[in-house]
Each structure stands twice: as C-alpha cells, then as structure tokens.
Amino acid sequence: MRLNDCHNVEDFRKLAKDRIPSSLFHYIDGGADDENSLRRNTSAFEEFDLIPNGLADVDNIDLSTTILGQKVSSPLFLAPTGMSRLFNHDGERAAALAAENYNQYYSLSTLSSVSIEEIGALTSSPKMFQIYIHKDRELTYELIERCKKANFNSLCLTIDTIVAGNRERDLKTGMTMPPKFTISSLLGFAMRPRWVYNYFTHEAFELANLAGKTKKGGKESIPVIDYVNSQFDTNLCWDDAQKAIESWGGPFAIKGVMSVDDAKRSVDVGASAIMVSNHGGRQLDSSPAPFDLLSDIADAVGDKIEIICDGGIRRGTHILKALALGADACSIGRPYLYGLAAGGQKGVESVLAKFQAELTRNMMLMGINNLSQLDLTRVRKR
Fold this sequence. Notes:
By secondary structure, the protein is an alpha/beta fold. The protein has one domain (about 5-380): TIM Barrel (Alpha-Beta Barrel), CATH 3.20.20.70. It has helices spanning about 10-20, 20-30, 35-45, 90-100, 115-120, 135-150, 170-175, 185-190, 195-200, 225-230, 240-250, 260-270, 290-300, 315-325, 335-365; strands spanning about 50, 65, 70, 75-80, 105-110, 125-130, 155-160, 175, 220-225, 250-255, 275, 305-310, 330, 380. Strands 4-5-6-7-10-11-12-13 form an eight-stranded parallel barrel, surrounded by eight helices. The model has no long low-confidence stretch (mean pLDDT about 90).
C-alpha cells in the first residue's frame, strides 16, 4: 500500500502499521484498560444522522472559521501529540508545515521532540502550545515565557493527566522514550529497516522542550507512564489554571474538560476555550465520549467560551455533527499521526486533504455552504 492508495483514516492507519515498529504503532493506536472509551469516542457519532435540504445554492462552499482569534481555512484543529519524531524523523516539523500549507491551527506538546523555538521560527500560521503543570512549577512558567518569545498564538493546559492511564498495550510492548533496543524488541525494529535507518541517521531523539530541565526525559530510555507519574503534579487545582492564564495573558484553552461543572469553572477562571476531551481514551476508561457531552456543555457555556471537540474524529461527517451540536471546532490526533507515520509531511497533508474534501462534499450534499448554517435542525438522534 502507498499513500495514493489511502482513501480514509483507516487506510492511513493500516499503512502506518506497516511502516513503523509495532511498539510505536500501538503507542499511537492504543487506549487505557479495556479501551472502551477509545472505541466509544468514534462510535458515538453513529447515533446521530445529518439532515440534508435539497435545491440549495452550494456553488461556493466556505469552510473557514475563527479559532481562538485566528482565521483558519477549516474547523479542523491539529491536537497536541508528544514525541512525534518517533513516528517519522521529521516529526513535529512535518505536522506544523502541513498545517501551515492548509492554513489550519497546529498544537505543539510540552512532550514534543522538536523545540518551541524551532517550530516558532519554522511556521507563521496559527500555533498553540500545550502545557502540563510539572512538579517543578518554575519549569511550567519558563515554558510559557518561551512561547511568548517564539510568537505562539495561544496556550493550552491539559488537566486530565495528573497520573498516567493504564495503557496496557505499552506495558506489553515495552514502549519507552526513546526506544530501547532489547533482545525482545529487536525483531519488531528489524522488520522496519527504513524506520531504523532514519532513526539512526538523524539527530538523536529527546524531549526537546525539556532537555536539561528534568532528570528524566533525555536520552535515557524510560517508560512513558513512568515519566508522567514522576514529573506531573497530582496537586493540580483551578488556582493553577488561573495563574497560568494570567501568566500567559492571551487566548487560552483548557483541555480535558468532561463535565458541565468543569466547563463553567473554565469560564470562571478566564479561559478562552475548552477542549472537550478524554485524552483519546488513554486516561480514564469508561469516561464518556466527548461527542456525547457536547449538547449539555454547549447549552451551559456555549455563549461564553469556544468549544473544541477532541476525540474520535475519523470523518468529515463527524465534524459536521459536532458543529451542529454546539462545537466551534474539532481536533484530531491519531488521524494525522497515522499520516505522519505513513508518509511524513506528505502523509499529514494527505490526511488533511481527505478531511477537507469530505467536509466540502458533505456540506454540498446537506445543502449548506457555510459552517454557520450548522445547528440542531441539521441533525437527528436515532
């Protein structure tokens, strides 16, 4: 299979599985515990239908919107994902350039393998940086200051990772960062010689934003779960969120909101947006799908804060349903990582192109030419 043979997210997933070592693929692909939330994130969309109107003028389709004050060409948002250079040697560089070429919002993770400064200099398109509250609080505020100097447009605080979820696939495969080449893992790496060649012929992997800042996360291999549990502060509270918002002084999203109460608190502390997210089903298994919560959260705070639906998006129709239920935008993580693993920047661009084509085609079939026409009258629960 080649990139040209990929027609949907599942095709990119299959190609990614063929191109990277199994431990890395399952790190992208897996969830927590029994992976019920992982599956539910996508299946939830099946319970709603889109309502089309015919004989409408759909000659000019406009996908553009504004997210966190930035005009972008699509409501699709590239979510923050860590350690992307494990999946392709260009990693976050490839994803950021692909997002710029499609004028879409890109998010860089604290746990990225390319630095804030490099991504800031590489692209001029809208960018968000995602922070965690580390036990070393000064490190968190240092990252915020670096983002200001690198001209990032917004910040995002992830609140659902005070402790790592039980990601059993990673435990079974022995996933570490950077990869550890052991007797038991050698076969999996040997079966992907192109990946091995690129890994050893490019700069050494590291958590670029944290290099020299923490005792863990450098060139010494450790399980991802161990890093999270040793470095992130479990004493995270709303005062911390408010302090980060005040320190940043610009558009700010809170990621991991999964209740009306937390959505209201986000408004109270001055957040600009919330990302309704269960971390891709990688944290608390049996938590609801973000899509399941949209109506209640939109009813409660939709007129006060931007709402981004994060999780389970696999089709353009999923985005249209989420917007109809009250989301302002939708973000993807796994879909573009599959594209990255399958073909680097071209792979990410191919994923974005598929979503753009699906959005355009399905808006035409629904008889709408502007995202503002999506509301509760255009969906029906089965």
